[in-house]
Specification:
- Its EC number is 5.4.2.6.
- This protein is α/β, with parallel strands linked by helices and 214 residues long.
- It contains eight helices and six strands; from the N terminus they run E-H-H-H-H-H-E-H-E-H-E-H-E-E.
- It has a six-stranded parallel beta sheet.
- Strand 4, helix 8 and strand 5 form a beta-alpha-beta unit.
- It binds 6-O-phosphono-alpha-D-glucopyranose and magnesium ion.
- The site of magnesium ion (MG) has 9 residues, from loops.
- Magnesium ion binds next to loops.
Length: 214
């Protein structure tokens, strides 16, 4: 029985996945290389620091810790600039509606995002009040696919993991949900998110009734 819904943010509630991609691509290009969209899939759900390490590896570029910190800041400045002009219209189709229906059905909701910019995005889009708990990149010490963020989310809601369903667009996020003993609904391609219990194109395809069949 599902008692709580845990949501990733980027690519599930808002379309910031494309902003992350643009900013990382710009950084890689400045360093003289590029990475593929397939490689970009591996960055979804992954922390800023870890994402940069992967990108530098793909480009065969070695940087000191100090340089890496400067590069991560540069990427984040571009990202924050794009995110700062967001408003409620940037909420993905059906996301706010589904969150409201979930709450109206008496279920709990939590955000479980690796992003340290979650607060800014929730504020810009006016979504904060739809979450009973918010766990983000500032709340955890490990990155997805470690289940830490979702387990902490379940704990904050007072719901057992087996009564939780996670909504995720990232392979690492689906893996985190399963590792935590939760149900997982993938947002995106069924081929890529093949470990999910169900895959939909967006939250506009979800109904509260469907949660019982997971
Ligand atoms: C999300 C995104 C990742 C991003 C991470 C950290 O999980 O899917 O692409 O790297 O958050 O985001 P931040 O805003 O803290 O750099
Ligand atoms: Mg995501």
């Amino acid at each position: 029985e599902i008692k709580a819904c845990l949501f990733d943010l980027d690519g599930v509630i808002v379309d910031t996945a494309v902003y992350h991609y643009r900013a990382w691509k710009r950084l890689a290009n400045e360093l003289g290389f590029d990475f593929t969209e397939e490689e970009n899939e591996k960055l979804k759900g992954i922390s800023r620091v870890r994402s940069l390490e992967l990108i530098l590896e793909w480009g065969g570029v070695v940087k000191s810790e100090e340089e890496r910190s400067e590069l991560a800041t540069r990427k984040n400045d571009w990202y924050v600039e794009m995110v700062s002009s967001m408003d409620p219209e940037d909420i993905l189709p059906g996301a706010a509606e589904f969150l409201r229906k979930v709450k109206a059905a008496g279920l709990k909701t939590a955000l479980g995002s690796a992003s340290k910019n979650s607060g800014l995005i929730l504020e810009k889009t006016g979504l904060l009040s739809l979450f009973d708990a918010v766990l983000d990149g500032n709340s955890v010490t490990t990155s997805k696919p470690d289940p830490e963020i979702f387990l902490k989310g379940a704990e904050a809601l007072g719901v057992r993991p087996e009564n939780c369903v996670v909504f995720e667009d990232a392979v690492a996020g689906i893996e985190a949900a399963k590792a935590g003993g939760m149900k997982a609904v993938g947002i995106g391609s069924a081929e890529i998110l093949n470990k999910a219990d169900l895959v939909v194109r967006g939250l506009f395809e979800m109904s509260v009734e469907q949660l019982d069949n997971l």
